Amino acid sequence: MKIKTSEWQWTRKPKAYTITDDKIEITTNPHTDLWQRTYYHFRNDNAPVLQVKTTDKYFSFVVKTEFDSKVRFD
């Protein structure tokens, strides 16, 4: 799938990101997350989100992540 940036919309656009024909790379800021309603009632909804609508019945993508955890659940 070729990424057509005109069809995508940011929620909380990050300061650092790159979009090419076959890749989206997002660098998030420290202390950003998308946790919701955990056992301990932890809620944090402040990470960047890139969204697109599709009419495809089945839509999938591959995600590769890199992170430098310092503590559990970091």
UniProtKB/TrEMBL annotation:
UniProt cross-references to Pfam families, sorted A to Z: DUF1349
InterPro entries per the UniProt record, alphabetical: ConA-like_dom_sf, DUF1349
PANTHER family: REGULATION OF ENOLASE PROTEIN 1
Protein name: DUF1349 domain-containing protein
Species in which this protein is naturally found: Ligilactobacillus agilis
